[in-house]
Amino acid sequence: MNKENLNNLFNKRIELQQRISAVEDDFRKGRSQDFSEQTSENENNEVLNEIYHQAKLELTLVEQAITRNENSEYGFCSQCNQAINPDRLRILPYIDTCSNCAK
Question: What are the domain boundaries of the chain?
Answer without folding.
Answer: 3-73
